[in-house]
Amino acid sequence: FQRIMSSSSAAITLSNGVKMPVIGLGTWQSSPAEVIAAVKASVKAGYRLIDTAAVYQNEEAIGTAIKELVEEGVVKREELFVTTKAWTHELAPGKLEGGLRASLKKLQLEYVDLYLAHMPTAFNDDMSQHVASPVEDVWRQFDAVYKTGLAKSVGVSNWNNEQIGRALALGLTPIHNSQVELHLYFPQHEHVDFCKAHNISVTSYATLGSPGRVNFTLPTGQKLDWAPAPSDLEDKNVVALAEKNKKTPAQVLLRYALDRGLAIIPKSVNISRIEENFNVFDFTISQEGIAKLEESKISQRLFLQDFMAGHPEDAFANERK
Ligand code: NAP
Question: What is the pTM (predicted TM-score) of this model?
Answer without folding.
Answer: 0.98
